[in-house]
Amino acid sequence: MLRFFYTRVGYAVVSLFVLTLTVFLLTRLTGDPTLMLLEPGASAADIAALRTRLGLDHSLPVQFWFFVVDALQGDFGTSIYHGMPVIDLYLERLPNSLMLAGLAFIWSLALGLACGVLAALYANTRWDHAIRFVALGGLAMPPFWLGMLLVLFFSVRLDWLPSSGDGGWANFVMPVITLGWYFSAAYMRLTRSSMLEVLSSDYVKLARLKGLRPWTVIMQHAFRNAVIPVLTLAAINLVSMVNSAVVVETLFAWPGIGRLLYEGISFRDFPVIQTTVLLSGVMIILVNLLADLLSSALDPRIRL
Amino acid sequence: MSALLELRDITMHYPVRGTRNVVRAVDGVSLSIQPGQTVGLVGESGSGKSTIAKLALKLQEPTSGELRFQGESLKGVKGRALKPFRQQVQAVFQDPYASLNPRLRIGETIAEPLLASDERLSASQRAERVAEALAAVELPADVAQRYPHQFSGGQRQRVAIARALILKPSLVVLDEPISALDVSIRAQILNLLAELQQKHRLAYLFIAHDLPAVGAISDVIAVMYCGELLETGPAAGIATQPRHPYTRMLFASVLTPDGDQQAWNTAEPVGEPASPTNPPSGCRFHPRCPEAIARCRSESPLARQVGDRVVRCHLVT
Amino acid sequence: MSALPASAAVPAAPRKARWRGLPYIAFAILGVFLIMALGADFIAPHNPERAALSLRYLPPAWVDGGRAAYFLGTDHLGRDVLSQLIFGARISLIVGGTSVVIAGVLGTAIGIAAGYLGGWFDQVMMRLVDAWLALPSLVFAIFLAAVVGPSETNLVVILAAVYWTRYARVVRSEVLSLRERDFVRLAIVAGASPSRIMARHLLPNVANTAIVLATLMLGSVIVTEASLSFLGVGVPPPRPAWGLMLSDGRKGLMAGYWWLTVFPGLCIMLVVLAASLIGDWLRDRLDPSLRPLS
Amino acid sequence: MSEQINSITGTSDAPLLSVTDLGVAYDGGRIPVLSGVSFSLAAGRTLGVVGESGCGKSTLAQALVQLLPAGAVRTGGRIDFNGRELTALPETALRDIRGKDIAMILQDPLSSLNPLLRIGTQIAEVSQRHLKLPRRSAWDRARELLASVRLSEPAQRLREYPHQLSGGMRQRVAGAIALAASPKLLIADEPTTALDPTVQVQYLRLLKGLQREHGFSMVFITHDLGVVANICDEVAVMYAGRIVELGTTADIFKTPAHPYTRALLDSLPRIGERAGSLRAISGQPPRPGQVTGGCAFAPRCPHVMPKCREASPTLLASVAADLSLDSSVASSVASSPVPSSPASTATTRARRSLAACWLTQVPAEAHA
Amino acid sequence: APAAPQGTLTWGLSLSLTSTFFDPGETPGTGAPLLLQYAQHDAVIRPIAGNPSGLSLADKLEQSDDGLTYTFTLRPNLRFQNGDALTAEDVKFSFDRYRGAGAKLLKDKVAEVAVLDPLRVRFKLKEPWPDFLTFYGTTATGAAWVLPKKYIEEVGDEGFKKAPIGAGPYRLKAFKPGIEFNFEASEHYWRKTPNVKNLVFRYIPDPATRLAAIKRGEVDFAYALTGALGEEARRTKGLTLKTANIPVTNFIVFASQYDEKSPWSNPKVREAADIAVDRKAINDASYMGLARESYSAIPQAMAFYWNPPQSVYDPARAKKLLAEAGYPNGFDGGFLHTDASDQIGEPVQSYLAEVGIRVQLRPSERAAHLKQVAEKKLTGLVLTGSGAPGNAATRLDQFVRTGGSMSYVKDADIDTLLDQQSRELNKEKRTAQLAQVQTLLSERQRFLPVLEYAFVIVTGPRVGVDGVNLIPDNPYTGPYEDLTIKPGQ
Ligand SMILES: Nc1ncnc2c1ncn2[C@@H]1O[C@H](COP(=O)(O)OP(=O)(O)OP(=O)(O)O)[C@@H](O)[C@H]1O
Ligand SMILES: Nc1ncnc2c1ncn2[C@@H]1O[C@H](COP(=O)(O)OP(=O)(O)OP(=O)(O)O)[C@@H](O)[C@H]1O
Ligand SMILES: [Mg+2]
Ligand SMILES: [Mg+2]
Q: What sequence ranges are listed for the domain ABC transporter (chain B) (predicted)?
């Protein structure tokens, strides 16, 4: 168990390292950041001074070392546009994203599980076809399009919901639906197939052979098992939801990290882009690690 | 007479993922196969039979011990240097569905060893050899053009045998070649194997669960328990007069339709097979052994020659 | 639970009782778009990049004020929406298709090698894959796009760089199980070299998976490409890309110019839908265990 | 015909289970898998069902509890159990019977236990459901049941999960689940196939012991003739979805009447026998849906007659197939009519076995 | 006593506000920070209520006849928002500290700033500089905004950016960079107590979303709604559509005009491009006709503007010119760099394509675009513009003089003329010199002017005094202290 823990943590550390290296190298590919930081027409001396200040006069490996050391201390550089530490910007927006993603997570999971189970129970009936059709459509629908249609309908035509920004609960409705839509369609499919698989398993067969009531068979024996892969996927998706929110947050002017990334791109604010991307990856790696360790602690079968 | 293939004190330990433990799949096994001889390997599930097969085929390097082929050690032999061995030793595995590449035609599968070998053959020569091999396993030549999924288990096993034979090897390792087959097909394959052995003077390492079947085809039977060889000896003797308490228990558990209900009335096996991850101390069989003495618990017996047998038991003399 | 029908008590096994016409429709949709993409120069009624400000915001032909010559209407610069959609198909399919193929070839090759050879190569590749997979595809793509700047070629490179890891991961795990399959063991026993085993025994057996993955991926790639355009780091304007049209059309949405968003969105959705239907169908189709015995 | 079947089982009064002319087809009725299956079973007796893979054994087991997989339909026949016609009962009534009066043990003990639930939960829920026991006493009973299937430390085992047990122990748990509501009939679908020989013998002994103790009837499905010979009172030999021979264990193993039964027995290697001279059956069993008119075994039968290819024989009183089934003779026999007249065989009266074979069955008038 | 400030007004902004805007000492030379500065700060002299260089914190300006000294007398009892007194020391401090756009020029010309007494401060120039007030006293630089010396020395530059204090009508209450800034009326403002208690500036990047927000009453002002959105706003009941009269021109810089290898180095090609663009159509399509067609880089409202000949849209002649220049089949003109929020790039690109000049659009976000323009690394065409206040001379210095902060022009003749005019105290002569420069620009086709841009402001139904065009040259709504909310709303 301990050994498993160490290997998993080891892998995560290596992945973090590779991730950091990737982001670092790619950012350096974009050219000298000093020119972006300085006012136009800066003197050669100023440039040199700034390069020294930023540590750009060192070789790449040394720079990388500094980058890692700084990052470990929570110093991800200063936003070019906002002139303040990127990490402050990031932390300022993170709660907004987490809230949005959290609600979208709950809504998508609830909808996905409910529809998935229904589709499986009524497999190959009209209900099943309808649910699967919607799910398929959901997977195929680009989120920003869905968002626009929602705005067109609920904000423009009906004037029911605010089209943007954060504020009251009404502000959550459309972003949450838009963000959760794709995921709920995915959960729907996964729940359905996982449920069907479990329903045809021997232990569900045995549960029927025991003469148990359908509700017991479905909830106690089938659903419990079928929900595991869905939850695993969902746990991992929770984080990628925060990050996939770029489009949704931009569309609905939601002040989260997705929009921060978008603004970073717009302003060519490389420290911001680099940090948002890096921290997304870090979050996902850590959550994956946590999910791994947790599931090894929870699922009696994985326990060693 | 030098042995065709010899396993000398071979041990195979697999690490258990995420722990410091190992699976002692094979421990200190020595076994030799003479040319033209069939060695039958029996034992319960997980006792290490397939591991032996993989080691004998050099699909795996043992943790310790060495494999000798025609008197020469194969330790550290790799790549091209292994070619002569590869041509001489072929295999047939248990699952006739997994043994054939679903994407290759039967003919291509059978010709595979030819292509990998040093023999330079033209396409027509190859086709001829394939037809020959098919004929040997009593399949019509036109099946060469078909794909595996169009065949039944028995037919696939014939194809697998044809592939094993196409290079005219001297040894074929058969890991449970009949276990997955229907009862009514088993005898067909056993007969075929025996016939081919006669014709080509093949040696077999024959692994199976089905004790009567092993008895029917083997010259020598080796009995494995939890990674160790407990008893080795001539087939007839082992079946009728087992020396090791485990061998006795195993053969007594065979239920036959002969109606005398002998096994049923006599045998009362006890306990569960030992786990190779966590083997008992001393003799690994001692927790189930009706005759176990104190020594069995503490001291692991060594393999000893007793008459025509090699037995690993403190009690057999 | 008494409302459950008898069929709920005994749920169907996942037998493929899908309507058989579905894949044909999917193929038809994809075919239409493919023809549009290939023959755009001949099919499109107008030059998609040509603006005529006097013809701004013409609605579709069947709406009041629409003109037959501009069947699906015009955009804020008076460009023909239909022509843009037709040329947009080219960008979507070419960018999507090429990147999926490049990612597929690369990912499959690396996946096979990593899975079969194992050792340090496997370790290095898989850590890289882990790290890269940790980046949500869109975020990673945006990052790369911001780094290398937008152009169609760059976009292909970016999407391939983002998506190869998925193939590598899937193919590798498949190879890991194939490697333990008897027919691979028997090929080793028969004396086949590693390269031969990878090319002849592993590749054909993972090819299906890779193809199915590719069709399913095509959808995500097209949506990602559109999202990039939408965020302004995709195909640079005024190339008529669907994502870009949506992004531009968003401004007209509020003013009621719905056709600027509805049609390109519909195109994306149809292509993605068709691709994933074909993917599903191929998955069933190529699975030898589901193939009828002859 | 049912009297005939009952006569075999030696029961004059109504049997516990009686199956009449049962047919099942897959794929919504297109692929027949079982046809004309009839047998009956008296209380306390054990019927062995043997047959090769795919001959419909599991389908039969599922049909008996009215739980056929999706796509499978019953195409005819009826099943009577304990005085009720199962095939006419509504689902709710069947639910009360399943697990209570009819219990089942499946082949793979690992996959038939829910990996996420404790052993105790899985056993206790049966008595909670059918015996209406409260949770606590259901768990107490579960512990007793585990003890009765001779599992060591039952109290601790209750709290464990399936993956923590060995194959043999899991199968015992499955046995405990089956016995939880004291059923009248136990259907065991290849319960020992996944077990090692030594463990198999232990388990079979346990089952027989429990049967003696509780008096339930058992339908024991297997492909292992050795097992059947040792533990069953009656045997049904199945081939391609039909029962080709039905009779007492002694009759079937000593004097098989169907050439298939005979050939199966002959093809098994005996100790001392050498491979190469085993009497193999040529060809292979048909797949469902492939069976055409006539006897399904005809293509492989050494004694095939023209009539065999035309019409399918029904299960009738038969004489022992007193034939040399040596493979060398088989081909010549196949082309010529059988030398001995079945009706003249003296052993007919003594046997109570039925076989579906034109060659060996006793003509109606002779029977009368 | 005036009524206490009440209510909240909310803006839907098209630009991202950042805390770097808090410090006028770092004014980047774009108009954006004005949005905050008018609320937060006040200046010695600045555009105010109808006067482009009106006295604000100062109530008296004495100018010496030699044009070398300027003495400002501050109003009495001025206070910063934290209650500290505002004195001449602060004025000097702010000037010395200034390092934003135009700082070098300003400091090169100013010999000394002397605090005469707590209310008087004197600027001494090295040589006569007629534009001193234009630079110091308008928003061409941010040097005249007065910052609290004591406070800044206490908290440091970083601390100041986190919690800025100014002398303006509104005090910063809370801010989330890039999202929302909240201001609260200050009781210390000299001019008057503001009418509205709270101002909320919200960045809504997407124009459609901005429109939706104002339609639903979530914001009271929405900036920069163009094209369809503007039309829709105009159609919507309750919304008012206005345009700020600001001297902003949109023009295309031929960034590659000195690259011998580029077709753009040929004046005929540049002329062809000039007449290939239909300015009127673009105005109608993008700005609902609110903008003005433009033929000069200098806005018409600016002092020293010279009215150039108007080029006539004539694609046929453009093609002919191209053929004469050796490009009968057109050519590949490289990138057309634009600001992403811009309305002109695409139609221009399309018009150019019409005559065979193929350019590739390269939009970036406004701030990024400006930065790139200033870095002068761009090639091909650069669509830019400027809303910087000032006069024709300041514009020319920035965009035309060799080495000017955004200049891609290198023309020795023009540079000479510009140098001359900068020392010319005679207004007529100076006008002539500047006209000469503009003539040269026009003749030599240094630019492709397109439109004088309309900064569209949509106001919602709650707004009483909307502040549009109350401050000269200010595109935004102000003075903030004068804004009102309609009673009963
Ligand atoms: N690659 C491996 N890694 C880890 N453990 C292994 C591996 N291969 C086999 N083992 C373990 O080694 C032991 C012996 O396995 P082996 O397959 O040799 O048994 P076997 O006698 O062939 O059993 P069976 O009759 O079930 O085929 C088992 O406990 C098995 O789990
Ligand atoms: N769900 C299904 N749909 C279609 N055909 C099926 C289905 N389940 C089983 N069959 C077919 O029905 C036949 C009988 O199956 P069944 O499982 O009853 O055989 P069996 O005698 O139990 O075989 P085994 O010994 O392998 O368990 C087989 O040929 C099988 O292929
Ligand atoms: Mg094995
Ligand atoms: Mg079965």
A: 5-251
